[in-house]
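Q: My labmate handed me this sequence with no annotations at all. I'd like to see what the chain might look like in three dimensions before we decide whether it's worth expressing. Could you predict it?
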Amino acid sequence: MKKILMISILFLTACSSPPEPPQVEWEKRPEVMNTQIMNWTPTSNVIKSDNINSSWSNVLPGFKPENRLYDDSVFYAVAHS
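A: Here is what I predict for the chain of 81 residues:
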């Protein structure tokens, strides 16, 4: 009984095909989604964590941020130290 059930499940899953993707209606007029540009200004503020459970240390001898040889986690650690 188990073999018949497994074979039928394998057969049904192997024979099924995904549905056709919807076709793009190229002749339709495009619809505008965003009418305004987002007002964003970069800041140099770092949001401090309210919940600090432990301490950590990371030694970076000769740290030079301009050479960009460090991983993003190092810059995150420097910014939050």
